[in-house]
Design a protein that fits this description.
Shape: elongated
Radius of gyration: 34 Å
Helix content: under 10%
Structural class: mainly beta
CATH topology of the largest domain: Jelly Rolls
Number of domains: 3
Amino acid sequence: MKRITAMILACMTISLIVPLARPGSALARGGNVLLESLSPLTSKTSQLLTADNPGHFSKAPLTHGLRFGDKDAYAEYALGGRYATLSGTLYSDDMNSSTTATILFVDASGRDPKVLLRIDVPQQARKAFRLSVRGVSRLMVEQVKCCGIDVDVLAALTPSPRVPIPPLKGEALETVTQDTGKTSQLLTLDSPGHFSGLLLARGIQLGDKDAYAEYALGGRYATLSGTLYSDDMNSSTTATILFVDASGRDPKVLLRTDVSSRTRKAFRLSVRGVGHLLVQQVKCCGIDVDVLATLTPGPRIPTPSFRGTALESQTLDTSQGSQPLTLDSPGHVSGALVTNGFQLGDNASAVYALNRRYATLSGTLYSDDASSSNTATVIVANAGTSKVLLRVDVPLGARKAFRVSLQGVSRLEVEQSKCCGLYVDVVAALTR
């Protein structure tokens, strides 16, 4: 008989524990975040509830959540504006010796804290709650009554919805190497922007007057397009964004656009040939603009149809003023990219070790868009005998196909012999 009674009591105990232990896992479903999983910025006489340190309600243990003790017990959390709602249940802990506790949920983001919800919890009672925390950067949970009060808080945050972002058809501006910046920051899920209560978890944010970010585009891109969002944090009416070609000594404004408070604005501009792009917010005061933008790569010069081994793949004996052309450091011809071959500047040369392995060299010489003079002259010579095999003039803005025999050539020199401000892109292949 005693054994049966003990079994009945055990079952009763289990039935009390299970319903109260389940809310923690239920609240965390669907991408929700349990409040106790966040590390508090500051706290006083609040503690985490666990299986080893539970709260108690109607003699059943509460193994999730937080406990707030006597008067002025609190915990403050960095929400970062990432969440939409906070919901859960307040339990008057069995340890209470007073009649009613009072819990405050406070938006502590700014200088003037704002009470979002005030709720009384009578002794031996539980109270469900739900409140909006959209745009709340810092949340304080506080128990303000005295004396001998303990309240257990089991709550979860639901993430804010995000601004719909179309699939990338290019390269996100923020992924490009940033040369310099001032009061600009990367937008992420942990540090988002906000527009109409929605999260912007991609892009950059430009703060107050003269906030800027400068990017090394290297002339690799054709267009920059996207959307400018007036962030919900704005306290002024209109922001002004400049997109500036900062490649040379005289910066050139490519686009100037105003963004009114609580609005968004689509934009598109050409960045062909732009080596350095400056994005700047020039208005004051209390302005934040979120910039979501994508770069589309510039078109490339079609790969030549000839077959063979790229000249630049050979061992380079000596080089003066020549550089390889790649996607990260391309040449430019009529706005299109030259991403293979090499470039010869003023009086530049490159000598390759061929060891008599090849019969011909053929390809194309391009007058690079960076040239400021009329005509370049390219000389192809046997470096061993100094015999000129080919001399080609390349007028400004032109391209010239060529083919030359390399019979018996051990070391090949390719030279651009003219000055000043001349650049020739050499795309060539060797055949046996």
